Amino acid sequence: MTEATTETPAPGSAPGAPGHDDAAGPPHPILEGDRTASWLGLKVRRLDDGHATTTMTLREEMLNGFGIAHGGMIFAFADTTFALACNPHTGSADTITVASGVDVNFLRAGIPGRTLTAVANRRQQSGRSGLYDVQILQSVPGGDDEVIAEFRGRSRTIPKR
């Protein structure tokens, strides 16, 4: 996959993107109070039913003691993208979809200053349970993006409280 920014954003996608009304606020209702996503600098590039693509830049304060991406930062980035794919961008009055479990495999070091892209896709939905894959890539100067982690999330739709 090349840069996610080359994709055509869906209506309701990232602020500043075609099809998004910047005055309407965040492109997804779950981002309204999500301080973690804001701190991460997460940008929504595309939203569709069962799909989300996001980006963020790996900053110095996101690194571990080895000077590479902290696994928790990669997890939080993937988990937020997973949540965006699981929940309709129009919102729901009655339900929310949350993680019931995840597995993550770290494959390569995340390098400071690089742009990370998370691409989440629904693989299966059965009743209130779902299965999603999230691939996390990082930009490579002068080359193709490389996969740095794979995240598999299991979702459960529950009543809103």
TrEMBL record:
Region (Disordered): 1-34
InterPro entries hit by this protein: Acyl-CoA_thioesterase_PaaI, HotDog_dom_sf, PaaD, PAAI_dom, Thioestr_dom
Annotated Low complexity bias: 1-18
Keywords in alphabetical order: Hydrolase
Origin superkingdom: Bacteria
Thioesterase domain boundaries: 66-137
Entry-linked SUPFAM superfamilies: Thioesterase/thiol ester dehydrase-isomerase (SSF54637)
Protein name according to UniProt: Phenylacetic acid degradation protein PaaD
Organism: Zhihengliuella salsuginis
Gene expressing this chain: paaI
